[in-house]
Structure to design on (219 residues):
């Protein structure tokens, strides 16, 4: 498996609190992605990055922000968590905009 | 916007039977990728198809890309219990869009 980790792996938080999820890679890949996975919706792209400080929105970006200050780290922030953001979040990396390698996922529950 | 329809949503087969999942796009694709996700796991890249009419094989798995580059299929011959999981296609166009997946169950 590619060198990609996510932290935390599990988190329970209350509605209205800020939450930051971290994705860390050791592969020096250019592209990094954040997805959420929900039953009936499959995997949906939230944001992605194509380089340090270069990010773009995906299909479901509302309520989320991202930052990439180093090649190896891509942070996903929920400014004010809502119950609709309860999901499993996957980070992925790719050398170019092609085959992606996924992290183990973060299970987030917003109560 | 771009849509990727994947069917069927679920498929239950007896071990040894064949299985096929299909993806159809509303737009022409630059490439299409296939992923497998085991229950409780993360998606794992299987293959990428780029050329019109391309056919690739991986042991019992056969992947096809349509002539018009708008559809693709994954066929598994003689399923085994190790094939259990959800199979997703991913459009290579920007923005990236996954099909909703086909969940395969194999009854031994």
């Amino acid at each position: 498996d590619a060198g990609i980790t996510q932290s935390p792996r599990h988190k329970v938080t209350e509605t209205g609190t800020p939450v930051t999820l971290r994705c860390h890679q050791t592969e020096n890949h250019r592209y990094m992605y954040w997805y959420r996975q929900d039953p009936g919706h499959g995997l949906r792209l939230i944001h992605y990055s194509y380089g340090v400080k270069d990010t773009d929105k995906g299909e479901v970006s509302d309520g989320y922000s991202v930052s990439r200050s180093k090649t190896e780290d891509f942070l996903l922030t929920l400014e004010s968590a809502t119950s609709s953001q309860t999901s499993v979040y996957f980070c992925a990396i790719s050398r170019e905009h092609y085959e992606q390698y996924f992290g183990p996922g973060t299970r987030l529950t917003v109560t | 916007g771009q849509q990727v329809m994947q069917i069927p949503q679920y498929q239950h087969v007896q071990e040894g039977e064949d299985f096929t999942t299909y993806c159809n796009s509303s737009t022409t694709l630059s490439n299409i990728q296939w992923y497998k996700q085991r229950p409780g796991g993360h998606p794992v890249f299987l293959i990428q198809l780029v050329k019109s009419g391309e056919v690739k094989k991986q042991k019992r798995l056969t992947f096809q890309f349509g002539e018009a580059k708008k559809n693709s299929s994954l066929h598994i011959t003689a399923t085994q219990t190790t094939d259990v999981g959800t199979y997703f296609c991913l459009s290579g166009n920007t923005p990236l869009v996954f099909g909703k997946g086909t969940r395969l169950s194999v009854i031994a």
The mean pLDDT of chain A is 95. The interface with chain B takes residues 33, 35, 40-45, 48, 58-59, 90, 92, 97-105 of chain A (CB under 8 Å).
